[in-house]
Structures are given as C-alpha cells and as structure tokens.
UniProtKB/TrEMBL annotation:
InterPro entries reported in the protein's UniProt record: PilZ_domain
Domain PilZ: 9-89
Protein name: PilZ domain-containing protein
Transmembrane segments: none
Domain of life: Bacteria
Provenance organism: Solemya velesiana gill symbiont
Entries under Pfam families matching the protein: PilZ (PF07238)
Sample GO molecular function, one term: cyclic-di-GMP binding
Length: 105
C-alpha cells in the first residue's frame, strides 16, 4: 500500500508498506532515512469490509534499515484497530483491548 509519512524535519515522505501488523508497520522509504524515536504522522488508504477508508495515526520510528523504517503505532482509535484486524486477519470479530468480543459490520 502507498503510505505518506509526515516528519517535521523533512516534510512528506512517500513509501510502500512491506509488513503491516496491529501494532505497527514497516515502510519502504528508499534512500530516505528517519532517526529512531522520531515521531511521524502516518497516512494511508486501506480497504476494509466497508470499502476504502482513510487511516491516519501517529507512530514512532523503532528501527531503521537501508531501505525503510519500522513504525510502532501510538494510541490507535477503535475504528483504526478494527480496520487493521480486517486487513490482516479478514475476520469479522476480534478482541478489543479489554478482552471483549467486538464484531465488524
């Protein structure tokens, strides 16, 4: 998926997701390097059960490689958590942070 990262020192950085998980993602950024512990705004359009949905959240850079960055999401909204579960697992129910079963409509 196409991703746009907004890092205040560089501005907008375009990349491609390589791996996506409920806690974060790895984004291929090419030659652009971001420092570990940098805060970035993540913007991506994801396809879920209800069609295309914008996904915007804050993340922290937890590791870097020559080709990209590993990001950990910060304070995901419930809708974003649901969208990630749909994308990754394709399930229509999941456990929320409190251990309750939630259903995707």
């Amino acid at each position: 998926m196409d991703v746009v990262l907004n890092y205040r020192s560089l501005g907008l950085v375009r990349g491609q997701t390589q791996d996506v998980g409920v806690g974060g993602m790895f984004v291929k950024t090419g030659r652009i390097r971001l420092p570990v512990n940098a805060m970035v705004d993540v913007s991506v359009i994801m396809e879920g059960a209800r069609g295309m949905s914008p996904f915007r959240t804050e993340a922290i850079v937890v590791h870097t490689t020559d080709g990209g960055v590993g990001l950990m999401f910060c304070d995901l909204e419930d809708d974003h958590h649901t969208l990630l579960h749909e994308l990754i697992y394709g399930r229509h129910e999941y456990l929320d942070a409190a251990g309750r079963v939630c259903h995707v409509h």
